[in-house]
Amino acid sequence: MTDFSGAVCRAIACLLAYLLTAVPASADVNLQMSINSDYVYRGLSQTASGTGLQAVLHGQLDSGWFGGIGMNRVDYRRPSDERSVETNYFAGVHVRRNEDFAYSVALVYYDYNDDSPIDYDWREAQINFHLTDHWTATYAYSDDWYGLNDASHTAELIYVYALPKSFSTAITAGYSRINGVLIEDYAFADAKLAWSHGPLTMSLGYTITDDGANRLGSAADSRWLLSLAWQHKLY
Question: Would you tell me which CATH number, out of the four given (1.25.40.10, 1.10.1740.10, 2.40.160.40, 3.40.50.80), belongs to the domain 3-233?
Answer without folding.
Answer: 2.40.160.40
